[in-house]
């Protein structure tokens, strides 16, 4: 019986010694990895952090953890403490293990249903068929120009909107002009779709300033809006536009 207890005790002792040895080896490996390089403590996502979660809530829910990393591999805006962004919220979902950096956090007032409204801008939504939003290619994050097609007020010089909507009568002169340039698309909500892809009517939300919002809302009520995707260095400038008389260079 004593011999059996001695064997069990030796087995337990060997297991403890082995575990301690492994831990010391891992710690030594970490020290070797950081040897000669300054180490800093940074925050990473211990678990997935849903968009709209404040730093304080994430800390209290155990969604954050600290890690030691070589200073040379850490960006300057990496967070070292949740207190640095205590009341701010993440603007989009953060994956487990992802390093937390300052630009990920915004004020709660700027975040609505996962959409971040750029500082100094307001969000405006307009309906648009597929052909009015580049066949469905105008997606969140895209920069677009907005054109307006309308009936011309014939009693005034130039292409001035009549304000009566895009009435379809042959004796009306219609015009199309550039309304807004460099507009950011924040969200696109499909109202309906077919199997071929994202077509049909959708609600397009864009970021504009007050003047842009006024133009967009007014044009939506009196004409027809079309979005155009902007490429690199687009040559898009306001002008008189074209109408039925000038569309072919007349």
TrEMBL record:
<dbReference type="Pfam" id="PF16976">
    <property type="entry name" value="RcpC"/>
</dbReference>
<dbReference type="InterPro" id="IPR017592">
    <property type="entry name" value="Pilus_assmbl_Flp-typ_CpaB"/>
</dbReference>
<feature type="domain" description="Flp pilus assembly protein RcpC/CpaB">
    <location>
        <begin position="117"/>
        <end position="229"/>
    </location>
</feature>
<protein>
    <recommendedName>
        <fullName>Flp pilus assembly protein RcpC/CpaB domain-containing protein</fullName>
    </recommendedName>
</protein>
<dbReference type="InterPro" id="IPR031571">
    <property type="entry name" value="RcpC_dom"/>
</dbReference>
């Amino acid at each position: 019986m004593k011999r059996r207890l001695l064997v069990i005790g030796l087995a337990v002792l060997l297991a403890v010694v082995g575990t301690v040895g492994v831990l010391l080896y891992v710690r030594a490996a970490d020290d070797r990895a950081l040897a000669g390089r300054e180490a800093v403590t940074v925050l990473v996502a211990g678990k997935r952090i849903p968009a709209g979660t404040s730093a304080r809530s994430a800390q209290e829910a155990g969604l954050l953890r600290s890690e030691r990393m070589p200073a040379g591999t850490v960006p300057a805006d990496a967070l070292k403490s949740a207190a640095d962004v205590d009341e701010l919220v993440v603007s989009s979902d953060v994956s487990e293990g992802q390093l937390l950096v300052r630009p990920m956090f915004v004020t709660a007032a700027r975040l609505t249903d996962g959409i971040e409204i750029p500082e100094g801008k307001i969000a405006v939504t307009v309906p648009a068929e597929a052909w009015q939003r580049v066949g469905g290619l105008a997606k969140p994050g895209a920069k677009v120009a907005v054109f307006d097609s309308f009936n011309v007020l014939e009693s005034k010089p130039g292409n001035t909107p009549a304000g009566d909507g895009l009435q379809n009568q042959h004796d009306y002169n219609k015009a199309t002009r550039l309304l807004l340039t460099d507009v950011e698309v924040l969200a696109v909500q499909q109202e309906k779709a077919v199997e071929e892809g994202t077509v049909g009517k959708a609600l397009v939300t864009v970021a504009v300033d007050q003047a842009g919002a006024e133009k967009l809302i007014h044009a939506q009520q009196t004409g027809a809006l079309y979005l155009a995707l902007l490429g690199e260095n687009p040559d898009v400038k306001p002008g008189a536009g074209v109408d039925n008389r000038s569309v072919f260079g007349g």
